[in-house]
Amino acid sequence: MNLKKxxxxxxxxxxxxxxxxxxxxxxxxxxTSSKVDGRYKVQHAYTDDNGFPDIIDTQTLTVHxxxxxxxxxxxxxxxxxxxxxxxxxxxxxDIVNLQLVINGRNVSTADPIWLSNRQRGSRYFSWxxxxxxxxxxxxxxQLMIVQRLSDDDVVDNNRKWKIITVDRSGKxxxxxxxxxxxxxxxxxxxxxxxxxxxxxxxGYYSDLLKGYPSLIFPFTYPFATGxxxxxxxxxxxxxxxxxxxxxxxx
Length: 250
Prior knowledge:
By secondary structure, the protein is of the alpha+beta class. The chain is 32% helix and 30% strand. Helix 1 (3-39) packs across helix 4. The mean pLDDT is 91.
């Protein structure tokens, strides 16, 4: 192997090494997303005044013959203002302890949420939503209530949620998960993203695909670098068939 091919080989291995990690991560995200989307159909249980499914914006809701009441227990506290609140001049929203009541029975614990201080959109936006989830594999459909447990000041690894499932008979179950262990709860990740209760979109294992694409990422790196690594590797390892065949005949 001549010097030129050695240089190509080293460069191709370098490109592949720096590209293979993010490429495999993105492939795993796409594969997991495909499996979850293929199995579950998720919709908002609440419909707005125009008849469109939307994030819940009412304290009472009946779905699948299950009665849901969202009880707000006052705390006399106000949520801190964000920079956007100050720019728009809106007053701080109330902090309430939210107790879910299903078919007249208290479910789970009363956890604090920050009510929206906007005149538009849901009062529970980014904190709570009620969803219908159809499992295409099992042929079942259930209600799932998603609630964020961490406040707006908590981001990334410390974010956490609870999901309450209500089956057709009214039986309830509850699960909790965090951003750190979200890979163990693929349906939970889909529900949080769908209901906008995550503050920001998150992936099943990595958030690599959730940022805004640019020419640098992912087109130049890792797509182009990975492709170049494969091409350079092929160039470095290929043999000149005609010359090799001529040398064999002679």
